[in-house]
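Q: My collaborator sent me two sequences in one message, no labels, and asked for predicted structures for both. Can we handle them in order? The first one she listed is below.
A: Yes, handling them in the order given. First sequence, followed by its structure tokens:
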Amino acid sequence: MNTRHSGIGMTSSRTRARLIERLRTNGIRDEVVLAAMNAVPRHIFIDEALASRAYDDVSLPLGFGQTISQPYIVARMIEILRNGHPLNRILEIGTGCGYQAAVLAQVAKTVYSIERVQPLFERAQDYLHELQMQNVILRYADGNLGLPEAAPFDGIILAAAATHVPQMLLKQLAVGGRMVLPLGTQEQFLYLIERDAQGLRETRLEPVRFVPLLTGKA
């Protein structure tokens, strides 16, 4: 690993530990998820000018109208996706800088992640390569289409808010699988969609705030 943000890196283990305690206090109960959050150095994924805030429980700008999600939201969505069970094949829509993909890589066998903004896709490639994340497969593509050639997925997670559930993604969710996504425009809520042998079940969870899910590549 290189020495980028080295000053932050020297204190990151302590600040990460404080972040984990905040997550636990705020209701994250899955110790596997907490361990995964603790294992990933968030400061690696953040511009140096903002690196001092890397372990604050806030979202931060990435440029291109995108953000790195608040750690609590990352942990909460992955906790819902896991539901206490091991994950095999996961699809993430909206790689961004690659932080959430890196956390997912700690709890899943294989993570496929799609990013539509080419500079962010390339940045995420660099960061994940730096951390030697061998089980993350990135694609530069329109996330609304998913990745049919790698389906079905036992988990699908969206890092941007859709106005409706993308049907192409639903088709790629395995029986027994879970999809976690934000839905809405001005008012957004986190939703859980579960597929079983009888069909789909949708559950509305807490209010959230995400950038919108866009179509095409940029």
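Q: And the one she listed second?
A: Here it is, processed independently of the first:
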Amino acid sequence: MSEKIIEQIAEEMCLAARTAPKARGLDLLEMVIIKGEMIKKLSDKMMKIGEKENHKTFVRDGDNILKASVVVLLGSKNHYLGLKYCGFCGFKNCAEAEREKAMCAFVPGDLGIAVGSAVSVAMDHRVDNRIMYTAGRAAIDMGLFEKEVVVAYGIPLSATGKNPFFDRK
């Protein structure tokens, strides 16, 4: 029974992310909910990245998500707002940023707001979770999102007596 409830909460998290405020109201979010064998595949990819890059965080998180019932993946596409004066991305304006194929600074900002909205839903339901860039990076590498997604996070969910995503080795 708790598995169905966690899946419903994952859907509610995606709804909260979708309705979160976004720059100029542009919705560039992509959302994927995975469970079962797909969590194992994501874990395997995270482990491979960790070994290849000698990056222990990927290995630790790859092992950690195996304790999740569901993983919510939130990603964003890149888009230029056409601003004449901003420079938050490190370039003079959007035209220059687009020429250099830079990521618009509003993209990860909007994604962060969406992720915050999503995890607040998990918190309201007392579902254990943790935001993991490692899961998002691996999901992009696996092609779990549309190819235009440039930044993503994974949020594993669990409902047990102890949050398995904190107090880790």
